[in-house]
Amino acid sequence: MMKRSRILLVLAILTVISATSSRAQTGIMGGVNIASVSASVDGSDVSTDDRTAFNVGVFAGKGGLLGFMTGLFYSQKGFAVEGSNVDLDYLTIPLMLRAKILMLRGYVGPNIAFQLACNTSDDVDLAGVRFSCDDTETFEFGWKIGVGGSLLIFNLDLAYEWGTTDIWKADNGSIKNRAFQIDIGLGI
Fold first, then answer.
1. What's the distance, Cα to Cα, between the start and end of the chain in Å?
2. Is the pLDDT of residue 160 over 80?
3. How far apart are CA 188 and CA 178, in angstroms?
4. Cβ proximity of 187 and 150 under 8 Å
5. Which is it for strands 51-63 and 104-120: parallel, antiparallel or unpaired?
6. I want to staple 27 with a disulfide (CB 3.0 to 4.6 A). Which of 117, 146, 173, 187 is the partner?
7. Alpha carbon separation from 25 to 16, 19, 30, 123, 152 (Å, rounded)
8. Are 185 and 159 in contact (CB under 8 A)?
9. Summary mean pLDDT of the chain
């Protein structure tokens, strides 16, 4: 019974702190995506190269010690195979729980994405199977985890996104997005 009361007391204190210091923050953010994929054909991994691109968008967060953060971002992802590029552009919506202590924050949550464009530089061969933009899924579900900090109105964030759904409709293949992000932003 004593242990239960301590847990309830801690939860009550955290709720009060969060409620009394909850202040919404909105802003713009953008930066570099170092995008990659996990790819396989017939169960064997396929080696691919990264695509360095960018992401930009708006974000909103609310809460004190514990809170919520979301946004709307244009995010470029993709990969290359033996000199052939696959450029994938998405509209992403992260829905994250955030913990904030002083100027630092950590966040984690689901990340949904809608494909806006797919372009290839020429024929893309994945271990003997031809990749085509016609065979890509337009919806992606994944996860995002990150850390960041704020000083006045300036933000710096490092995050990692990994897709859990296949973006390729091939019967014998699988491609899932990955992206490491370095973002800077201005909050209001």
1. 45
2. yes
3. 30
4. yes
5. unpaired
6. 187
7. 19, 15, 16, 45, 12
8. no
9. 88
Look up tokens 């897709």; give the residue: 163
E strands, the chain, are 25-41, 44-46, 51-63, 66-81, 84-101, 104-120, 124-126, 129-131, 139-151, 154-163, 173-187
- Domains, in order of start, for the chain: 22-187 (2.40.160.20)
The first and second tokens of residue 7, run together, are: 């847990």
| Residue 51 structure tokens | 């695509």
Instruction: Check pLDDT > 80 for residue 13.
Output: no
Burial level of 52, CB count in 10 A (0-12/13-18/19+)? exposed
Amino acid at 17: I
Rounded to 5°, angle at Cα 29 from 150 and 145: 70
Query: What pLDDT is recorded for position 19?
Result: 44
